[in-house]
Amino acid sequence: MQGVDVAIVDKGDYVSGASSASSHMIHGGVRYLENGEFRLVKESVEERNSLLKIAPHYVKPLKTTIPIYSTFSGVMSAPMRFLTHRQGAAQERGALLIKIGMMLYDSFSRDGGTVPRHEFLGRKASLRLLPRLNPGLKYTATYYDASMHDPERLALDVLADGLATGAHARSANYVEAIGMDAAGVRLRNVVTGAEFSFEADVVVNTSGPWTDLTNTALGQASTYMGGTKGSHIVLDNPELLAATGGREIFFEHKDGRIVLIYPLAGRVLVGTTDLEHDMTQPARCTEAEVDYFFDLVKHVFPDVAVDRSEIVFRFAGVRPLPRHDDEAPGFVSRDYRIESRPLGARPGTLLSLVGGKWTTFRALAEHLSGDILTLLGRTRVVSTVGLAIGGGRNFPSTDAAHRVWIAANGDEVGASRAEQLLTRYGTRAVDVIDFITAEPDAALEHHSDYSRREIEYLAATESVVHVTDLILRRTSMAFRGELSLALLEELAGVLAPVLGWDAARSTAEVDLAVDVLRDRHAVDLARVDAASASRA
Fold first, then answer.
1. CA angle 297-298-299, nearest 5°?
2. Half-sphere exposure (CA, 13 Å, Cβ side) for 197?
3. Interatomic CA distance for residues 113 and 388, integer angstroms
4. Where is the signal peptide (predicted)?
5. Tens-digit pLDDT profile for residues 347-389
6. Measured between alpha carbons, how far is 302 from 152 in angstroms, rounded to an integer?
7. Which of 256, 295, 264, 297 has the alpha carbon at shortest distance from 90?
8. Per residue in 220-275, pLDDT tens?
9. pLDDT for 341-354, tens place per residue?
10. CA distances from 236 to 8, 133, 267 (A)
11. 164: burial class by Cβ within 10 Å (0-12, 13-18, 19+)?
């Protein structure tokens, strides 16, 4: 947006790494207060409040409740954790400590009432509102953060906004940085194997937990990173969904780990762990982690049964945390910094982004682009503060405005379909509607919530390379557990003419999707199809 000649390359699909494995939250980080990271909390709360306004199609207020089982627990140990950043013996935070934290958190959130202040309730009032909670609790604290319904789609909106600024902005997924020579960064097309050099005055390494591996490939070995693995499971359990009362349950488990039970897209997201991880190895949600999640659900909702047959999706990622040596993972800063060094093989600068999180991505990008502009001897011409993102632009924010939008855009597709597309794409749904009504359309046979023309639109405009890109990141089909082998084959058939696939490529794409779902997400479509057949 500053007019700088920019190219983005991503070894995989856009947002297929750490960013796709988040807890789907935009939050101020109330627990960072105990780490003394007041600057980060202030920035995070401000960015949360801003994203509720500039990306209202994907970022929504999220009511969050903390069950509390004691009054004074943790009062003595918290100062030691603050001073030493050592976990010590796991000790639950009691009501007094949480009350202090909530008051501090509210003090950072003075933004014209973007979200309400916190509230404390006693046992009886808490159980009246959430009767399935553990009856052993003494209090609940409730505050607001924000949910991020579709992180991958939010990122695609940011990318599309950048590319729309002109021919000086370019991007390519499935292109890997493999080295550096006198001609520039050596790149490889992951799909075709073609290699070429790309010249740039500033090279920015934003590969998250893989930052050190990327720098090593560029001939600039570093030891900046120390990411930890976080896993999640997605449950199709209507009883648990109802028990949450539509709010996130956020609490400290008996081992001291902060975890969550979170209603999302008609399912329940349960997470997360915080485990050391070797970045040369893939991150997977293990059976031991599933047992851990089931244990924490039982702790919070003791009379709600969950089992493995209800898991429709699993995912794991690695947080892009800085190297932390002996520091306890939970106390590693979630803040970010930018490391600078010469390119080495040719004139120029290599910037490496260390740390960061979804909530502060706009502020982080502003900081990073400011450093780049300084290196290039240029000045900022556009501010992104308050700038609407993608389908958040002119998003109807009131019931009346919503009705007007539906009436104006539902003539050809119907009000319910217009509503559905507005929810998926924000006001960019106008472009989708124009596309799907330009030619005859029909609902997918194996997923009636999507149509053939809608899938063709995604393939033609959103850099889809594989079936997996579509099911994992352009739609929420995989997350919600809505896939079948027949649906994969139907999707490949729709994508084929748009992407130029022959029959062999279509078959290979379905096979790849089956393998990725089984290996990375523990989704066995043969078992899913068999279960569906038995229910039918």
1. 90
2. 11
3. 19
4. none
5. 999 999 999 889 999 999 999 999 999 999 999 999 999 999 9
6. 34
7. 256
8. 999 999 888 999 999 999 999 999 999 999 887 777 677 899 999 999 999 988 88
9. 999 878 999 999 99
10. 37, 19, 5
11. exposed
